[in-house]
């Protein structure tokens, strides 16, 4: 479509004028077709200025999570991206696509989640246009035990993507909460399905939610005490399409090169992990045990020293960290 091609030219030189004559010659369409394409883009919400004698310029790249907008930041074209205005959950929709035969590497993006989910059945607040809500479908050929470190590895991938876009490294609260300056800005939910006969993995869905444009008023009172957003913490505007593209590329790297060599991310995880060296509280049902986090092991389990001096490795469950999320 002409509007897609016009957008590609304008987005390649944001905030710079491109003449109608240049667009016409470069794209092989008439000046009238250029004008119609620009008007169509404007109706979709793009801020395009027209100035006599100068041409057209895109004042700011759109923040929509669309194929066009995300594609402008990707190094290569992808045809396996599904974009929705609203879904119940990107993970749930990704699983529907998986059951319909969607291929390895399929990505689901949404402007809004009406029933976003976090770990242990918690809800993940996902208001329209404020966050990055993304899930990716993988079909690795392996036993479930091979993917034990996946959530921790994904936390490193998200931290790397945030750093690429903002210049600031996101910390990790074991196992997979992403923090910026002590406030939670992202969460990860991993789900998998097994083949009935072989016990091998049929598919795994990795869901990531990042708070980008949220203000304190966008969170419930309980969540606002621990969470924030990239914009609020950094005091500047962060592009959701740019972040989505960076995250997709980091997840591609994780799937292609790191998933089978998790040791390559071990030091990166340890360096980012704010849990190590701090007093923690282990939550097991109704019981609470105080310990000191001393290390992250080779399988990304949290090694703690209990009050009686025993070393124990925690591989699942809830861990509160003194000084974070209100635990004092």
Structure write-up:
30% of the residues lie in helices and 25% in strands. The protein is built from ten helices and 14 strands. The protein has helices at 2-12, 20-27, 31-43, 67-71, 90-99, 150-166, 221-224, 230-234, 240-258, 266-272; strands at 48-51, 55-58, 81-84, 107-110, 131-138, 171-173, 177-180, 183-194, 201-211, 279-284, 287-296, 302-306, 311-314, 318-321. The strands form three sheets. A seven-stranded mixed β-sheet has the order 3-4-5-9-8-7-6, with helices on both faces. The longest helix is centred in the last third of the chain and has 19 residues, at 240-258.
TL;DR of this structure?
With 328 residues, this protein is α+β, with helices and mostly antiparallel strands. Helices cover 30% and strands 25% of the residues.
**What sequence of helices (H) and strands (E) makes up the elements?**
HHHEEHEHEEHEEEEHHHHEEEEE
Q: How many extended strands?
A: 14
Using only C-alpha atoms, the radius of gyration works out to 22 Å
Overall pLDDT metric: 89
Strand content: 25-35%
Apparent shape: elongated
Output the number of helix runs. Answer: 10
Largest sheet strand order: 3-4-5-9-8-7-6
Structural class: alpha+beta
Uncertain segments = none
Largest sheet: 7 strands, mixed
Residue share in helix: 25-40%
